[in-house]
Design brief:
Layout (H helix, E strand, L loop, with lengths): L2 H10 L8 H8 L6 H10 L14 E8 L3 E2 L15 E3 L3 E8 L6 E4 L7 H13 L2 E4 L2 H16 L9 E3 H8 L7 H7 L10 H8 L4 H25 L9 H4 L15 E8 L5 E7 L4 E6 H10 L1
Parallel strand pairs: 1-6, 6-7
Antiparallel strand pairs: 1-4, 2-3, 4-5, 8-9, 9-10
Amino acid sequence: MNVKDIIKFLEAKPGYLKEGSKRLANSVLQGAASVEDCKKALKLVRVSPVNTSREGSKILIYDIETSYNIVSTWRVGYNIMLPHYSVIKERAIICVSYKWLGKDEVYSLAWNKDQNDKFLLEQFIQVMNEADVLVAHNGDRFDIKWIRTRALFHGLEMLPKYNTIDTLCIAKKHFYLNSNKLDYISKFLGFEGKIKTEPELWDNIILNKDKQALKDMITYCEEDVTQLEKVYNKLKVWDKPKQHAGVLLGKTKTTSPITGSNDLTLVKTMTTNAGTIKRIVRDNMVDRMFEMSESNYQKYLKGQ
C-alpha cells in the first residue's frame, strides 16, 4: 500500500487515526505498508465524509449483527427462568456495516478472532461521532442501546446524545403496513429485500468460529444497510429533520433545515387553535416539505 491507499483506508475507517504509525503498519495493516508511509498518511488525512445526497447533514446509515448469550441450564422448555448468573459468555456485536447517505461504498467492521468486539466499537464510535444523524431500523430500541451497552462493558466513551432516525418508528407512526420488518417494507416499496439466512449461521460463527460464516454474515449485514438506505429515502419525507442543515452550514434559520437552500416555495398556511401561524414550505432542491415558524418565514421574505 502506498500513501494514497493508506489515506483511503483511514478515511473509510477513521477510528484508526488514533493509532501510531508503527501499530498502523504492523498490527492493523499487517506489513502491507511501511511505517514511514503510515506516518505520512496520518499527517495528511483529514476525515470529513463527503455528503453527495444533497442533504446538508452528514447522515450515517448503519446496522449491527449480534451474538447470543451462552448460558448453563439444567432443562429446556417454555417459561424457563434463567438467572443472570447462568450466563457463561456475554453476548457481543459480531459486526457492524455502515455507509454515508448518497455514497456508494459500504464499510464493515467485525469482532476479532477471539470474538472480542472492543476494537470494532472503538472504530465505529469514531464514525458515529462524525455523523450529524444516525439512521437504523429499530435503532432507537435495539442498535444504539446495544452499542452503548458494549461500550459501557469495555469502558469506551460515547457522546451523551446522538440525533437518530428510526425507520421502524416512521413506519409505525404514519402507515398501516402488514409488517414493519425491514424485509417486508423493502419489498413493499419495490426493492429487493433482505438476504435470507438460517439460525445455523449464528451457530457456525459463535460456536465454531467459522471464517466463511463470518464473511456471509458481513455480506448479510451490508445488504441490510443497502436496503435500509433505499427504505429511508422513501420514508424520510414523513419525518421532521433532526437538525437544521442551514445552521450547520453557517446560514440562518430562514433557510431549509433539510439542505440549507434558499430556494423555497410556500405550500400552505396553517394555524394552531391558539392562532399561532405555521407555514408549510417546500425545499425545491429536494422537493421535500417542512414546517417553518411565521417569524422565520417573514424574515425569509424580507431577505428575498
